[in-house]
Amino acid sequence: MAIVSTLHRYECTHRYESLPVNFGPEKGYRRNKEQCSSIKQLIDMQRLETGKVNLSEVARTLGLSRQRIHKIVSTYGLLVKK
To answer: Model pTM?
Structure first.
């Protein structure tokens, strides 16, 4: 009986490991260059118009959350002054 349960556990583990990965670094580890460039353009436009940057407005324009915009900006350093 112990051999059967061990083989069953091995089979389940093997099936689980053979499934495609739909999350984590395997799925989305590359930088979305178009998204970053559009964020950078909006930041530059705001700097020219008002002299300051409102990430909430950038998020509304692109249809993303403020948290996601903040994460992209801080990860890739898009708020660096020229």
So the answer is: 0.60
| Whether the Cβ atoms of residue 36 and residue 80 lie closer than 8 Å to each other | no
- CA nearest to 37, candidates 76, 6, 67: 76
The string over 57-70, giving b where at least 16 C-beta atoms fall within 10 Å of a residue's C-beta and e elsewhere, is ebbeeeeeeeeebe
Considering the chain, what percentage of its residues have pLDDT values greater than 70?
84
pLDDT tens per residue across span 34-47? 888 899 999 999 99
Residue 2 vs residues 6, 10, 11, 16, 22: alpha-carbon distances, Å: 6, 12, 14, 21, 34
Cβ-in-10-Å burial (0-12, 13-18, 19+) of 76 comes to middle
- Could you give the CA distance from residue 10 to residue 40 in angstroms, rounded to a whole number? 49
